[in-house]
Automatic annotation (TrEMBL):
Presence of keyword tRNA-binding: no
Molecular-function GO terms, alphabetical: hydrolase activity, acting on ester bonds
Lineage: Bacteria, Pseudomonadati, Pseudomonadota, Betaproteobacteria, Burkholderiales
Name recorded for this polypeptide: Alpha/beta hydrolase
Gene3D superfamilies per record: alpha/beta hydrolase
Pfam families, A to Z: PGAP1
Organism expressing this protein natively: Rhodoferax sediminis
Matches recorded under InterPro entries: AB_hydrolase_fold, PGAP1-ab_dom-like
Record-annotated GPI inositol-deacylase PGAP1-like alpha/beta domain positions: 150-279
Coiled-coil ranges per UniProt: none
Length: 421
């Protein structure tokens, strides 16, 4: 059970957060000026007034005013950032021992999901770095837990869009409080050692795939005991990230993919999510008139990670050289399930039973049933899950897949070793 949110939001902030928000405020002010100038010029053009040298900008004294606003904003932002840069080490020394609150981490995860690619590109302190985590702390290869504290059965749990590793943990009230999430259950019943991934879900899925592959190579090389079994449990976008990581790990001839035994996908949009495609058409509708066209900038706050969910991109080639915000056909390269790895698919649906409408549109509220099960109208794109390796959670939404006791029971059933003859 997540602790109740504090009534004082300042409690959850850190010095780096303040610096990051100051940078965002500067960018937002400059962006608002661009939008305002675009609308202003659209009106001027309708009256026959000339514009500036750059399309969408005004000319003459009006253009000079907007240019001054952007210049002053940039200078002010640089000054504030320089001040926070000097104060940040002093302020952080007093809070170094304080772990981030669940409320803070949830807000950062959502922010990174929406605009994490921009945060990373501008080196904003709010950008989430990728880390493998054990018992709530980032793994340090130089200080791994001793062999007696871990097992050779490693379970990697990967969260989805706008989420973080803490949301895998479900706490039930009591004395003491008990953890009831999938990771805790599989550790208690099957002897797994859960490792959690935290990452910036706003970056391209393939970028996260490259980085995860490199980190898993380090995990395999430094794990304190021999790894007998390596299983991945991935929710939503996390399933696309691990598919990308396996692809690039094998392409780079790394060692860790050979250690991978099983992958369980929970509500993964293998063939995309229609909500992103619907959002994509907002760009087109707003862009049809010169007066609304400047507001297309607002819809483009969708991160690269979100646009990758349009069709389920897992490779660099799927998005490189393309305008991510223009409607296009599904041109991604087909990537089958990794050979030699036992793969399972859990699909959620808010419906009580299967139907054509529920399968294609309703699904778990975010991901259609067919997409979660890897099924596609084009046989070349379909992912082949064995019949016994597919399971549907009825009356279950996308987020509930993380905490459903029925899902936990199915995971235990799939991952329990078969008795030896």
């Amino acid at each position: 059970m997540t602790p109740p949110a504090s009534k004082n939001p300042i409690k959850h902030l850190r010095a780096s957060d303040l610096r990051g928000m100051a940078q965002l405020a500067t960018q937002a002010t400059a962006g608002a000026a661009h939008i305002t100038e675009g609308v202003h010029q659209a009106v001027r053009s309708a009256l026959g007034a000339p514009g500036g040298k750059v399309p969408g900008q005004t000319g003459g004294i009006t253009g000079l005013v907007y240019k001054s606003v952007r210049g002053v904003t940039q200078l002010l932002g640089q000054g504030v950032d320089a001040l926070f840069a000097r104060l940040q080490p002093l302020l952080e020394s007093a809070e170094a021992a304080q772990p981030g609150t669940p409320q803070r981490e949830a807000v950062l995860a959502a922010l990174n999901g929406v605009m994490g690619d921009r945060l990373a590109a501008s080196n904003n302190p709010l950008a989430t770095p990728m880390t493998l985590r054990y018992r709530g702390e980032a793994l340090d290869w130089r200080a791994l837990p001793p062999g007696h504290a871990v097992t050779g059965k490693v379970l990697l749990l990967i969260h989805g869009l706008c989420m973080n590793d803490l949301q895998w943990h479900i706490w039930h009230a009591g004395e003491p409080a008990q953890e009831m999430g999938h990771g805790a259950a599989l550790a208690a019943q099957l002897g797994y050692t859960p490792i959690y991934l935290r990452y910036n879900t706003g970056r391209h899925i393939s970028q996260n795939g490259h980085e995860l592959s490199s980190q898993l190579e380090q995990l395999v090389a430094h794990w304190p005991v021999p790894i007998d079994e390596f299983t991945v449990l991935a929710h939503s976008m996390g399933g696309l990230v691990i598919r990308s990581a396996v692809y690039y790990g094998r392409q780079d001839a790394l060692r860790w993919p050979a250690r991978l035994n099983k992958i369980v996908f929970l509500g993964t949009p293998h063939h995309g999510a229609p909500l992103e495609r619907a959002g994509n058409w907002i760009d087109v509708i707003l862009g049809r008139t010169p007066f609304s066209a400047p507001f297309v900038r607002l819809t483009r706050l969708r991160s690269a990670g979100i646009t990758d969910l349009r069709y389920g991109y897992v490779l660099d080639v799927d998005w490189q050289g393309q305008d991510l915000y223009r409607p296009r056909l599904d041109s991604r390269k087909a990537v089958p399930l990794p050979e030699g790895v036992t793969c399972y698919a859990v699909a959620g649906t808010t419906a009580a039973k299967r139907s054509a409408l529920a399968d294609r549109l309703v699904g778990d509220g975010l991901v259609p049933l067919n997409s979660a099960l890897g099924q596609h109208d084009d046989p070349r794109r379909s992912l082949v899950f064995a019949k016994a390796s597919q399971w549907i959670a009825y009356r279950t939404n996308h987020v509930a897949l993380l905490s459903s006791p029925a899902v936990t029971q199915q995971l235990v059933q799939w991952l329990t070793p078969l008795p030896r003859a």
